[in-house]
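Re: weekly structure request thread

Next one in the queue (278 aa):
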Amino acid sequence: MVSEPSRSAVKRERVRDYLMELVESCAPGDPIPSERTLCEQLGVSRPTLRSAVDELVTTGLLVREHGRGMFVARAKITQELAPARDAYRLPQASGSWASKVLEFTTVQAGARVGRRLHVSPAAEITYIARLRLVDDEPMAIEYLHVPAALVPGLQPGDMESGDFYDFLRERHGVRVHEAVQSIEPTVTNEEEARLIGVPVLSPALLFERLTKDTTGRPVEYVHSVYRGDRYRIVSRLALGDTAPATPLSAAQHHPGIPPGDLASRREVMTTGDVQPGS
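Done, posted below.
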């Protein structure tokens, strides 16, 4: 049975977003305010704040130094897998995929999400948290941010059936064209572990994606947590100019990306592989 998110989970997610915005505005090695100061600024309890801080420490964005406080961690090294002129091909992941909406609301974008979507921090966005299931088993949690002006009339049921990119195209005339996505290791916090049915601090994959339409306008910012015990990414590298291009089906599910009509070019093929349960 799928569990609903608690109020504390929603509050922790917003504290996490605030802390990530703080990290992005600082240089590596910069101190961040004390837990007491942050609790007062955000109006949250110490356990709620500490849970979000612990997550960022575990994922390598913050470091704690005994007797000194918390600091922004050194930047991670990024390795490009394909030349900029080519795009990822996104083949099918196995299994029958479905979605369950956990939260659906309209909120202000805030500074961090606003920068990604190129909208004012005060602009309204539609925020959706949904559980992704494969063969009725929880596999991932997705947090979607979409400019509200792009999707008037969007309902929770629209996010549980059909293809969101098809919905954008057919109902709102928005055609997605490209996306930039990062993938890195993480661990599950208490709420994520409860929702996807794994122990707390289990290995997981963190996807972050910014999707743009044919005009270059950002239309969607998503971050997702995929369980690491059942999901893996395999990259097949085409090193020559004669690699065959395999056409993609609109009904396929792609790692960290809902089914859609993104470009199908050659250079790197990234495959989502769902592992059988033990």
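The helical segments are 7-24, 35-42, 46-58, 110-117, 164-172, 190-196. Residues 7-24 form the longest helix (18 residues).
Next request, please.
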